[in-house]
């Protein structure tokens, strides 16, 4: 009803009937004028609020240049309402789709995760909503059929309702897709959480189960379950719930398998222990070995020192003897010869012993022993 | 202090306020006159106002692409019409302007009617009078008085008109009224009441010397309206009848169709503006000059229309040319008609006798010439009655008054009973008993001397020797010598200095002669500005009918 080009000068509250006259004493231009627009608008608003309170409807009998055709007894508004409702549902589903479909990983924060309860709630509400919408469409259709109108109008209404139905179906499809994903994921989860494959009462199994048979069954049932999931998610869901109750055969079988597994486990444990002990021993021996090697190294060092010292001593003595011999050759030759031969034999026996000890230890010695090389050099001399 | 300018500004502001777009101007009967006097149709058309409708006309079409500017008087009928209009609006937006103060209850009534909220603005623009000349306004009211007291509705209307003049001119005046007239006292009181009630409106910037409102009564000077006039505007009004600046020439023999109704407006007509107050002789000369000018222009245009540039120049100048030719033909027609009437009715002689009667003091002479004239067959009834009235007014109490004889003469001539009765009623109206001041016999020494000297000197122009009473009154007022005993102040305060802005209101109507006086006074005394107004503007016929 409002004319958009009109300037609004109203600022006071609508209920202020006792608005005092605001008179401009002097306006900006040179004429003397008084603007009573505010009072007028205040009165208009007062009247309007009063009318609204009383409930008088304003008769809009204005003749417009373009006459607005009134909607036919509410078909259009109702249809529009249904459409808006379906749109609301669609928006809601799309909005929560991500949360709904998410796998619920442990990493995600709690706020975005949807609990199962919430998902169930969404499912329920969506179903009720869709049911009511289809109900409304049906009602509208009946109404449209009952009303006596021209053929064109009937056709138009029928087409409108068909379109609404298609729209509703599209939204339902959205919903069912979401649901299917969710159900499939749940089924997979459930399947994986079992230790043995699911059984259907039709499939018979002997209690003594061989791993091979189990395997085949295992292969079969996943296929079956997959096809079941594809065909009828709802019913499988229910069935898988039912199969929680196991038959006694299966129970026994499961027990036996349990026992076997336990024994295997125990044996494994024992073996492991043994190996452990052996490993411990080996490590101990290793330690002793290392110790011994170190000891021998120190001994060799000592011996080497001694040898070096002895060699030095012998050299010195030889020098002295040689000097004395040279002195005593002038005196007598026998005494020195004998002493010289004694010294020689002494030195030879000494080096011999040294060589023996050397050969004895040659197995343990490496090549780089300068002291012994020195002795070797002495021997060559 | 220019009343035409004030009204024109109001109308311009009204139109501007509504913004661009096609507009329609909705008026009532009175505001139509108000607007038509200040604005020509072509001027308004330029401002995109393409349609002019009356609010009370029922056969208007729906035009939702137009904005409606309503300029109405705040009367009950107008409010009723407006309510009906707002209930079923024919236009897209309404800008409502009332020409005077409107009551709150009426605004509420309008607000209730405005269901579709088509009203954008409601304002009060105080243009509730007809601005004839810049210093002359009128309210176009007939039958203001009933006997010697106010017709109640007329009193209200006069008060409203007068207050709107004051607001338009932005004056909050001191009021002086004529003691001898009860009507003026009542009007003064009611104006004062309004000023006090709406003191916020009248809260103008105070000048050093406050303005003055002087309320006079026509009955004090009944002679002036009876006289024949010889200045252009006054003469036209007297002989042809100037109604809202329009002359109805339809009864003139041999008139062309587009001159049947002629607009004489000083705003748009330069010649008229220059010759408003010139007397007949001067007008003749000026018209002749105008014709010569026009003739000079005319053949020149028609001669060299050979080249394209010439043609272009001609077409460019054609509107000017057309305008000039229109003006010339108009004035020529009017003046021609005037002179025809003058010769037909022997107005020269009549006027001479009139002036003699009103200004001179020679009874026997006057009587003789009057009788002589009454014998003449060409004298019209109206003039005869007029002369007798003048005689009656002048020599009412004269010892050798021959009034009954004259009355007999009138009946012999075949003057209707009604007209004869008018003489009597006129005497009642403006007779000596009633007059506050002595109209013709001077009272104080100064005036006596003046008259004596005048008698000696002779007058420059026999036909214009009469000065209306208002001249003396205003003269005294300007010099600060207006007697308080005759013209008391309303209220305790009084002007200490000489007044500078004066608004004079004549109850019963003003005349163009008085307007001329005021104009001359305005010119001669530069520090003073006077605006004259009346409940109507008289000519003899109207005056006579009035009684």
UniProtKB/TrEMBL annotation, chain A:
- Feature: compositional bias, Basic and acidic residues: 194-226
Q: Which residues form a coiled coil?
A: 251-278
Q: Would I find Disulfide bond among this entry's keywords?
A: no
The family database entries (PROSITE patterns) matched by this protein are listed as: SYNTAXIN
Record region (Disordered): 194-231
Q: One MF term in GO for this entry?
A: SNAP receptor activity
Q: Which GO terms describe its cellular component?
A: endoplasmic reticulum membrane; SNARE complex
Keyword Transport belongs to the record: yes
Q: Which InterPro entries match?
A: Syntaxin-18_N, Syntaxin/epimorphin_CS
- Domain SNARE-complex protein Syntaxin-18 N-terminal intervals: 35-122
Give the keywords, sorted.
Answer: Coiled coil, Endoplasmic reticulum, ER-Golgi transport, Membrane, Protein transport, Transmembrane, Transmembrane helix, Transport
Q: How does it sit in the membrane?
A: Single-pass type IV membrane protein
What subcellular compartments does it reside in?
Endoplasmic reticulum membrane
Q: Which GO terms describe its biological process?
A: intracellular protein transport; retrograde vesicle-mediated transport, Golgi to endoplasmic reticulum
Q: What Gene3D superfamilies is this protein classified in? A: 1.20.58.70
Matching entries from Pfam families are given as:
Syntaxin-18_N
Q: Name the residues that span the membrane.
A: none
Q: Which domain of life is it from?
A: Eukaryota
Q: In which family does this protein belong, per the annotation?
A: Belongs to the syntaxin family.
What function does this protein fulfil?
Syntaxin that may be involved in targeting and fusion of Golgi-derived retrograde transport vesicles with the ER.
* PANTHER family from the UniProt entry: SYNTAXIN-18
Q: What is this protein called?
A: Syntaxin-18
Organism, per UniProt? Gasterosteus aculeatus aculeatus (three-spined stickleback)
Q: According to the entry, what is the taxonomic lineage of the organism?
A: Eukaryota, Metazoa, Chordata, Craniata, Vertebrata
UniProtKB/TrEMBL annotation, chain B:
Q: What high-level taxonomic lineage is stated for the organism?
A: Eukaryota, Metazoa, Chordata, Craniata, Vertebrata
Output the Gene Ontology cellular-component terms: endosome membrane; Golgi membrane
**Pfam families assigned:** Sec1
Q: Which Gene3D superfamilies match?
A: 1.25.40.60, 3.40.50.1910, 3.40.50.2060, Syntaxin Binding Protein 1, Chain A, domain 2 (3.90.830.10)
Q: Which domain of life is it from?
A: Eukaryota
Give the protein's biological function: May play a role in vesicle-mediated protein trafficking from the Golgi stack through the trans-Golgi network.
Keywords tagged on the record: Endosome, Golgi apparatus, Membrane, Phosphoprotein, Protein transport, Transport
Record family assignment: Belongs to the STXBP/unc-18/SEC1 family.
From what organism does this protein derive?
Gasterosteus aculeatus aculeatus (three-spined stickleback)
Protein location: Endosome membrane; Golgi apparatus membrane
Q: Report any one BP term from Gene Ontology.
A: protein transport
Bilayer topology: Peripheral membrane protein
Protein name, as recorded: Vacuolar protein sorting-associated protein 45
């Amino acid at each position: 009803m409002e004319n958009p080009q009109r300037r609004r000068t109203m600022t006071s509250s609508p209920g202020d009937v006792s608005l005092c006259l605001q008179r401009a004493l002097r306006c900006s231009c040179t004429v003397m004028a008084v603007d009573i627009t505010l009072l007028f608008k205040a009165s208009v608003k007062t009247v309007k609020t009063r009318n609204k309170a009383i409930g008088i409807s304003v008769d809009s009998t204005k003749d417009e240049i373009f006459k607005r055709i009134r909607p036919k007894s509410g078909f259009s508004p109702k249809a529009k309402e249904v459409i808006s409702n379906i749109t609301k549902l669609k928006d809601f589903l799309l909005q929560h789709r991500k949360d709904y479909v998410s796998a619920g990983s442990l990493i995600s924060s709690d706020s975005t995760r949807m609990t199962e309860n919430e998902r169930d709630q969404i499912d329920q509400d969506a179903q009720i909503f869709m049911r009511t919408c289809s109900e409304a469409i049906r009602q509208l259709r009946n109404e449209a059929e009952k009303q006596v109108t021209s053929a064109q109008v009937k056709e138009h209404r029928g087409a409108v309702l068909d379109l609404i139905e298609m729209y509703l179906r599209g939204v339902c499809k959205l919903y069912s897709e979401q649901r299917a994903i969710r159900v499939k994921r749940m089924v997979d989860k459930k399947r994986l959480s079992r230790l043995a494959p699911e059984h259907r009462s039709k499939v018979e199994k002997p209690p003594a189960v061989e791993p091979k048979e189990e395997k085949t069954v295992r292969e079969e049932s996943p296929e079956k379950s997959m096809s079941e999931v594809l065909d009828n998610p709802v019913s499988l869901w229910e069935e898988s719930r039912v199969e929680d109750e196991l038959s006694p055969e299966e129970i026994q079988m499961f027990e036996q398998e349990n026992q076997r597994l336990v024994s295997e486990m125990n044996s494994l444990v024992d073996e492991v222990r043994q190996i452990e002990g052996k490993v411990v021993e080996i490590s101990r021996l290793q330690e002793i070995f290392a110790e011994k090697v170190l000891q021998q190294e120190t001994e060799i060092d000592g011996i080497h020192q001694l040898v070096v010292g002895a060699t030095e001593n012998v050299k010195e003595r030889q020098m002295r003897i040689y000097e004395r011999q040279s002195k005593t050759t002038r005196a007598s030759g026998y005494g020195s010869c004998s002493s010289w031969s004694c010294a020689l034999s002494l030195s030879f026996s000494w080096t011999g012993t040294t060589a023996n000890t050397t050969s004895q230890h040659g197995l343990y010695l490496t090549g780089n022993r300068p002291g012994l090389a020195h002795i070797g050099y002495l021997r060559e001399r | 202090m220019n009343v035409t300018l004030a009204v024109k500004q109001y109308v311009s502001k009204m139109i501007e306020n509504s913004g661009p777009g096609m507009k329609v101007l909705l008026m009532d009967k009175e505001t139509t006159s108000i607007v038509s006097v200040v604005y020509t149709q072509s001027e308004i058309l330029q401002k995109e106002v393409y349609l002019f409708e009356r609010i009370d006309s029922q056969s208007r079409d729906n035009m939702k692409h137009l904005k409606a500017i309503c300029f109405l008087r705040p009367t009950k009928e107008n409010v009723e019409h407006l309510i009906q209009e707002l209930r079923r609006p024919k236009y897209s937006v309404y800008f409502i302007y009332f020409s005077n103060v409107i009551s709150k209850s009426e605004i509420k009534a309008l607000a209730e009617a405005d269901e579709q909220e088509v009203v954008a603005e409601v304002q009060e623009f105080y243009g509730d009078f007809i601005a004839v000349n810049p210093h002359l306004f009128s309210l176009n009211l007939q039958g203001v008085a009933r006997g010697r007291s106010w017709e109640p509705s007329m009193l209200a209307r006069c008060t409203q008109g007068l207050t709107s003049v004051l607001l338009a001119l932005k004056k909050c005046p001191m009021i002086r009224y004529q003691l001898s007239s009860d009507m003026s006292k009542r009007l003064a009181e009611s104006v004062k009441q309004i000023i006090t009630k709406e003191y916020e409106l009248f809260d103008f910037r105070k000048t050093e010397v406050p303005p003055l409102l002087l309320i006079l009564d026509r009955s004090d000077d009944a002679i002036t309206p009876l006289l024949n006039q010889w200045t252009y505007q006054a003469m036209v009004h007297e002989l042809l009848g100037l109604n809202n600046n329009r002359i109805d020439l339809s009864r003139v023999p041999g008139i062309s169709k587009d001159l049947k109704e002629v607009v004489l407006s000083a705003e748009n007509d330069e010649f008229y503006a220059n010759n408003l107050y010139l007397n007949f002789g001067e007008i003749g000369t000026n018209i002749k000059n105008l014709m010569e000018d026009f003739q000079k222009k005319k053949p020149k245009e028609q001669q060299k229309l050979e080249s394209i540039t010439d043609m272009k120049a001609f077409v460019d100048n054609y509107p000017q040319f057309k305008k000039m030719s229109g003006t010339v033909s108009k004035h020529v027609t009017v003046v021609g008609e005037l002179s025809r009437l003058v010769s037909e009715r022997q107005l020269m002689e009549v006027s001479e006798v009139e002036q003699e009667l009103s200004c001179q003091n020679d009874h026997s002479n006057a009587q003789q010439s009057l009788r002589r004239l009454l014998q003449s067959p060409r004298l019209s009834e109206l003039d005869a009655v007029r002369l007798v009235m003048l005689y009656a007014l002048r020599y009412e109490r004269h010892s050798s008054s021959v009034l009954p004889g004259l009355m007999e003469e009138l009946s012999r001539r075949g003057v209707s009973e009604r007209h004869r009765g008018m003489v009597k009623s006129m005497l009642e109206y403006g007779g000596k008993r009633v007059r506050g001041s002595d109209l013709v016999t001077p009272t104080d020494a100064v005036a006596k001397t003046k008259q004596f000297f005048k008698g000696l000197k002779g007058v420059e122009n026999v036909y214009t020797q009469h000065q209306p009473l208002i001249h003396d009154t205003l003269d005294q007022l300007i010099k600060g010598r207006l007697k308080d005993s005759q013209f008391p102040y309303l209220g305790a305060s009084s002007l200490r200095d000489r007044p500078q802005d004066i608004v004079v209101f004549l109850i019963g109507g003003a005349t163009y002669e008085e307007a001329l006086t005021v104009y001359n006074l305005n010119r001669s005394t530069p520090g003073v500005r006077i605006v004259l107004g009346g409940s109507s503007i008289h000519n003899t016929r109207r005056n006579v009918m009035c009684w």
